[in-house]
Amino acid sequence: MVAARHRAPATALVRLGETRLAHADAGALAGVRREAWRRFLETGIPTTRVEDWKYARIDALLARPFAAPGPAEPAAGTLAAAFAGGPRARRLILANGRVLAGPSHVGGLPPGMRVLSLAEAIARFPERVAEVLAEVPDPGPFTDLNTALAEDGAWIELEEGVRPEVPLQLLFVAVGEPSAVMAHPRVVVRLGAGARLHLIESHLAEGAGHVLTNLVLQVRLDEGAELVHEKLQAAEGGHALLARTSVRLATGARLRDRVATVGGDFVRNELDVRLEGEGGEALMAGLYLPRDREQVDTLVRVHHHAPRCHSDQFYKGVVEDRARAAFAGRITVHPGAQDTDAYQQNRNLLLSDEAEVDAKPELEIFADEVRCSHGATVGGLDEAALFYLRTRGIGRAAAEALLTYAFAGEVVTRFDDPELAAQLRRAILARVPGGGMLDPEGLVA
Amino acid sequence: MSDAVETVRELTERDYEWGFVTPVEEETVPPGLDEDVIRLISRKKEEPAWLTEWRLEAFRRWRRMEEPRWARVHYPPIDYQAISYFAAPKQKERPKSLDDIDPEIRRTYEKLGIPIREQEILAGVAVDYVFDSVSVATTFKKKLEELGIIFCSISEAVRDHPELVRRYLGSVVPPGDNFYAALNSAVFSDGSFVYVPPGVRCPMELSTYFRINAAGTGQFERTLIIADRGSYVSYLEGCTAPMRDENQLHAAVVELIALDEAEIKYSTVQNWYPGDREGRGGIYNFVTKRGLCKGVRSKISWTQVETGSAITWKYPSCVLQGDESVGEFYSVALTNNFQQADTGTKMIHIGRHTRSRIVSKGIAAGRSQNTYRGLVRILRGAEGARNHTQCDSLLIGDRCGAHTVPYIEVKNPSARVEHEATTSKLSEAQLFYCRARGIPLEDAVALVVNGFCREVMDELPMEFAVEARKLLGISLEGSVG
Asked: Rg (Cα) of chain A, in Å, rounded?
């Protein structure tokens, strides 16, 4: 039996999980994994009748006959194209969920900063890993699945006041295999009081196939800590990504979260932010450009638990061909979270007769000393703006490309890392109809 | 919290003025619901066989359906077998003239401030009075008949205009639409019926006044309004109920049909008994209202002022089927004490160049929960569709909740959909400004709240606007706190 409006997971998936659990860890970690697995089986796979999955069609995705991933070795050239964070950036590279020690570079870190593969963390301090894996709030079936089956990933810890100068990049590569595979990488980020980290997360693919990456990134920011998290998802070629990011912020902590999705058959980004201490700040922005039959599903949950916090969501979408994009954002102001400032914007450009955009911007407010607002728009390109450009001698196709690019640009400018921003610009131009007519160099201000 | 808040709380604790019970002899069927009860209701109303069968079919569907759980309202399980599905003031037959109405019933409407007599004499509004489950009086029938307008109770319409009823009943809200609509289809007792012939502009507001009186009953009325080509009608609906410790169920269905270039304006001032300050008693208002803009350039406009009911579950909607048709929804929902409201609208754009506008103002005070839930859906073929939604919430006190749950689904690139929403607190600065000018706090709160709701209030017909403004003030008494 599974929960109402859920479906039992496919036999292949269950068998794979049982096998993996049978000869996994011992001790507390084994207990945490079994508990998460039990919850996953009890809950099942959500159908579109589950409110949070209303616009996500994942049935076919999860019904595939998954096999255990084999060793994957992406080509050096594939990886280099996605390098970001400058020449001195540290980098952890994972292929189909497993850390590749060779091309990764996490040496020479400042004192008080620790970056390990999750496998190594499990080998060195399994009890602590067990404790941390169990602390994700409102896990949901896929986080439970990840907790049960995660073998590798990253363990990132910064002690009080540690502020490395260079970014850390996590590079996830989906390497196509003959059969469908599922990977469950887990990333743990813990920043001590006043620490600061610039984390770049890149997703790309090598070869077509069906790699389903079920990633969970869990973050804890102590007092006054600051995380800049920039994510570029460009895994084209039949692959899918379920990415859950869960962030808890203590007093005065700050989060800047940016995400751009420019590839992936099915991409689901869940962001769960909890402002638990006074004066916390969470600034979130996202851009999605699905085309062909791609689907991007964004779910943002911001919880204001403490007074005087500020949150801002700014998400934009450009949807072409037969693609679908959904945005569901919710601001919850809990009782006692007075003096809350919370904003949410979702703007969508619908460029095809066969595409679809769904938006569900929600407010849930239980305190009265608040300033909350949200806005959502869906529409095509502005005819007046197009006309203006055409009167200046720009052809219709180029004018459309320019306006679409400018629409997306508002999110691009919020990215800090210049290399990542440049990769994103190229990806946008490759996706925008007529983007080839525009000169990327000429457009960079 | 400040003094101002304390004062508003005092102000909002005024009592429900319409909570009296009328001592008329009522005829009720015993509680419980099965096919026999439905046959009994149908027989009492001397209905044709097709309608009895229609009810039974709805009942069979209802039995297989689940009560909806997705709304943000909480209440103990309802025992549908403990409700009496038919209550009517005892009378041998429908009064032939207004003089024949039971004086007690007449007094009830006088106490409610809408004397049946006076309405007739003062001209202006034609009213259908629904007392518990049945229509007791309809005024101005003759004058309307001259224009070919049919305005009567739905039971009369079934008897006198079966072809219209049979054609349109359930055409907008099918019997299996949802749990409460199915229940209503099975047991509806009465309600109003309006048909406006082609090209006729109805010269007066048509109105129904609903009154629940008997204890242990539910009210399940059904309203059907058809505006034929190029016609116009404005319809008002008001409701009250006595104060009781028990919760009473009100599950109505309203269907509107606008043919080519017709316009229907439907206004509601809903003031069912909201329960007492501790949240005891009150009406459960589970209502399905939907309008079909069937013809080209037709228009349906919903305006609602919701101040009553312990629970409101209501989404007056427009299906914009005709090209260039227009749907509008203007709403004020005010909750106080332990009231819960989950209300909003659906705008379904099917035709080309269809337009819709939503203005929703939610006011939450006390420990109430106030939710706007809305859907704007643009289908593939709705070329050039437009929607603008504005949804504002005002919080009075820190123990209430205000929520906004809009759904936007767009499948046509030439459509333009905009949604904006804000939530804020009743401004201390504005209250202070008013008070500094010698305006008493009670009036200041009413002033600010009325200002907040103005866009919606302006849409109400004049007869209703005055009542609605007063209601807002009264419902808020005791809320600043």
From this structure: 21
Question: B116 or A437: which carries more pLDDT confidence?
Answer: A437
Amino acid at A217: L
* Dist CA B411 CA A355 (whole Å): 6
Contact B267, B234 (CB under 8 A): yes
Residue A67 pairs with which residues in a beta bridge? A181
**Nearest partner of B348 among B323, B362, B327, B329, judged by Cα:** B327
Return the number of CB contacts < 8 Å for A and B: 116
pLDDT band at B459 (very low <50, low <70, confident <90, very high): confident
Is-contact B267 B331, C-beta < 8 A? no
Take residue A333 and report the two structure tokens written for it.
Answer: 């102001």
- What ranges do the domains of chain A cover? 6-277, 384-445
Residue type, B296: V
CA B70 to chain A, closest CA, distance in angstroms equals 9
Comparing A271-285, B33-47, B169-183, the range with the smallest average pLDDT is: B33-47
Structure ipTM: 0.88
Are the C-beta atoms of B310 and B277 separated by less than 8 Å?
no
- Summarised one tens digit per residue, pLDDT across range A153-184 is 999 999 999 999 999 999 999 999 989 999 99
Q: Are A116 and A124 in contact, with CB atoms under 8 Å apart?
A: yes
What are the chain A neighbours of B420 within 8 Å (beta carbons)?
A: 373-376
B409 and A357 within 8 Å at the Cβ level: the answer is yes
Q: Which residues pair with A114 in a beta bridge?
A: A157
Spatial distance between the Cα atoms of B446 and B475, rounded to a whole number of angstroms: 10
Q: Where are the beta strands (DSSP E) in B199-298?
A: 205-211, 222-227, 232-240, 247-250, 253-258, 263-270, 282-293
The answer to whether residues B432 and B400 touch, using CB atoms and an 8 Å cutoff, is no
The rounded radius of gyration (Å) of the Cα atoms in chain B is 22
Tell me the chain B residues in contact with residue A351 when contact means C-beta distances shorter than 8 Å: 413
Q: Interface of chain A against chain B, CB under 8 Å?
A: 51, 335, 338, 348, 350-353, 355-380
Are B327 and B291 within 8 A, CB to CB? yes
- The two three-digit tokens of residue A51, written as one number: 């409110």
Distances (CA, A) of B447 to B11, B148, B450, B454, B476: 13, 43, 5, 10, 12
Nearest one of B175, B222, B173 to B346, comparing CA atoms: B173
Kindly list the residues from chain B whose CB atom is less than 8 angstroms away from the CB atom of residue A365: 393, 395, 401-403, 423
Instruction: Answer whether A370 sits within 8 Å of B411, measured CB to CB.
Output: no
Q: Name which of A357, A362, A368 is nearest B395 (Cβ-Cβ).
A: A368
The stretch A133-148 carries a mean pLDDT of 94
- Kindly report, residue by residue over B281-308, the tens digit of the pLDDT: 888 899 999 999 999 999 999 999 888 8
Both tokens of B243, joined, read 């104060």
Tens digits of residue pLDDT in A60-90:
888 888 888 888 889 988 899 999 999 999 9
pLDDT over 80 (residue B137)? no
Buried b (16+ CB within 10 A) or exposed e, B432-470: eebeeeeeebbebbbebbeebbeebbebbbebbbebbbe
Contact B402/A350, CB-based, under 8 Å? no
Highest mean pLDDT range out of A248-252, A361-365, B251-255?
Answer: A248-252
CB atoms within 10 A of CB A351: 20
Q: Give whole-number Cα distances, B216 to B44, B183, B213, B248, in Å.
A: 20, 17, 10, 7
Chain Cα centroid distance, residue A115: 20
Asked if residue B136 has pLDDT above 60, the reply is no
Show residues of chain A in contact with B399, CB under 8 Å. 335
Give the tens place of pLDDT for each residue, A382-401.
Answer: 999 999 999 999 999 999 99
Provide the 8-state DSSP code for A351. -
pLDDT digits (tens, 9 = 90+) for A29-43: 999 999 999 999 999
Q: Is the pLDDT of residue B2 over 60?
A: no
